[in-house]
Hints:
The chain is α/β, with parallel strands linked by helices and about 250 residues long. The chain is about 45% helix and about 15% strand.
Amino acid sequence: MGRLDGKVAFISGGARGMGAAEARLFSREGAKVAIGDILDDEGREVEAAINESGGDCLYIHLDVTSEANWQDAVAATVSRFGALHILVNNAGIGGVGGLVEDTSVEAWQRVMDINGKGVFLGTKAAIPEMRKAGGGSIINISSQLGIVATDNTSAQYHASKGAVRILTKSTAIQYAGEGIRANSVHPGPVVTPMTERRRADPETYAVMRSRIPLGRFAEPVEVANAVLYLASDESSYVTGSEVVVDGGWVAQ
């Protein structure tokens, strides 16, 4: 008996890193899973691996900044699997660090579009189908840096992840009466392609580890386990909350 038996989930940014870990875990727990990404080759590899292991996965090309892409992705998911119960807004990018005054409008906008607008568009596209299904669970991947700031991360990254945190709460309040829950997950540094550059620099890597009480980066599955809880009926009374998975970073 899987924790997501009978559920249909859509995960953005599902081609690698945390999104791929979430897709594999959800499938093992009984969900039918659609994943969206712009990394088509890697996305199809995840799709094939899940299907070969006995799961049911669909890969869909998705630019999260496009409302039309989102509408098509949700429609394709429902066409294939019959419903949509779970949305994980996982897609996101980092931002090059620097002072606010040195940040270009273009750099600011790109991060805000993918990390902020992308979550908004995914939520907007999914809600009508969740309503038809009688409820659902939206899980938005923010960051510990959506709660606290650092001196070596870009202002636009902080701002985008803070926006995700509050958008989640707004969504939760607006749709609680329809049985649609919304929660945010706030990972600390995770061993994914997005952190590869920083992990490759010994000095930067040491500084980042020194700020984590547990002394290490998370593995993707450690975040996926928290997402699974919020996606499942085990969290049926949890909405508008934030789950911090950061090795103790924000407790300091």
